[in-house]
């Protein structure tokens, strides 16, 4: 069943067109990735879907036109934005307890979430003293505090070190396994390939490509080759066809393979091919 449907959605600020006739269908319970460089319109789409911006066209979430959603519905979504609006001089604990009270969430739930995200021991720390990674975890904590069915994550790992990024990826996967629909915006193509069931590539307000990441990478594999680096420092390139089976088998039997790679493209290369520019 579709969780989100966008039909011919456009948005302009004055004379500047930011989005042009966007069409999207996002399934309930999937991780969906919206990819594009800064300024492509990713955050604008998130703000439209979360009721923060007006638009032209039709947007349906949970089988109801977005323009008709009530305040009660807004409490069923979570958001993790780069600038979420925490009170910098207050502690982690005071900030989350304030948001919990607004949403009717118990303090025990606050404790549980802080422990889940390894923030409990730092709960008395002021927001202004937190590292980038801790702020991202705190934003994520606030997004899941009320156990929403739909969560928007806007560049959730931007600027994080690899270890903290992996921790957040694991949290996102766990949340999705519990049935939560995740709408992820990112310009990190590796992140999208690892996490997303489907992605849309956004460029200058237009969706230029949509599909499953692995399927797209195979679709844009123009070389269709297998490259083998042998232990005796030879490089062997074979067509990725049944005709190469015997040669590949011979190398395997000799136990002479150091590395082996197929030639499918990644999302960064696909985006460059389709648009002539990079994601970063």
What does this protein look like?
The protein is α/β, with parallel strands linked by helices and 280 residues long. It folds into two domains: 2-213, Rossmann fold; 222-263. The protein contains ten helices and 13 strands. The chain has helices at residues 42-49, 71-74, 92-103, 107-116, 132-144, 162-177, 189-195, 213-219, 245-253, 267-275; strands spanning 2-13, 16-27, 31-35, 56-61, 64-65, 77-80, 150-154, 181-186, 198-203, 206-211, 225-230, 235-239, 257-262. A six-stranded mixed sheet has the order 6-7-8-3-9-10, sandwiched between helices. Strands 2-1-4-5 form a four-stranded antiparallel sheet, covered by helices on one side. β11 (225-230) and β12 form a beta hairpin. The longest helix has 16 residues, at 162-177. It is globular and about 65 Å long.
């Amino acid at each position: 069943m579709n969780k989100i449907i966008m039909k011919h959605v456009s948005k302009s600020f004055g004379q500047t067109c930011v989005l042009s006739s966007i069409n999207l269908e996002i399934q309930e319970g999937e991780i969906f990735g919206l990819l594009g460089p800064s300024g492509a319109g990713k955050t604008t789409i998130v703000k439209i879907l979360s009721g923060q911006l007006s638009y032209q066209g039709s947007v349906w979430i949970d089988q109801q036109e977005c323009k008709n959603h009530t305040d009660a519905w807004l409490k069923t979504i979570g958001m993790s934005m780069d600038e979420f609006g925490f009170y910098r001089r207050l502690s982690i604990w005071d900030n989350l307890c304030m948001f919990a009270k607004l949403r009717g969430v118990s303090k025990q739930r606050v404790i549980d979430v802080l422990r889940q995200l390894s923030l409990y021991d730092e709960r008395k720390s002021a927001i202004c003293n937190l590292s980038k990674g801790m702020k991202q975890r705190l934003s994520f904590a606030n997004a899941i505090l009320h156990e929403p069915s739909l969560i928007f994550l806007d560049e959730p790992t931007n600027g994080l070190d690899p270890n903290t990024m992996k921790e957040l990826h694991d949290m996102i996967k766990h949340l999705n396994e519990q049935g939560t629909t995740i709408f992820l915006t990112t310009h990190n193509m590796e992140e999208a390939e690892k996490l997303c069931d489907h992605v849309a590539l956004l460029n200058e307000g237009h969706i230029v490509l949509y599909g499953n990441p692995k399927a797209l990478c195979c679709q844009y594999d123009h070389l269709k080759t297998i490259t083998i680096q042998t232990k005796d420092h030879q490089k062997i390139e074979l067509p990725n066809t049944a005709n190469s089976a015997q040669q590949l088998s011979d190398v395997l039997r000799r136990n002479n393979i150091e590395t082996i790679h197929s030639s499918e493209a990644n999302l960064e290369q696909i985006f460059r091919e389709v648009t002539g520019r990079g994601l970063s």
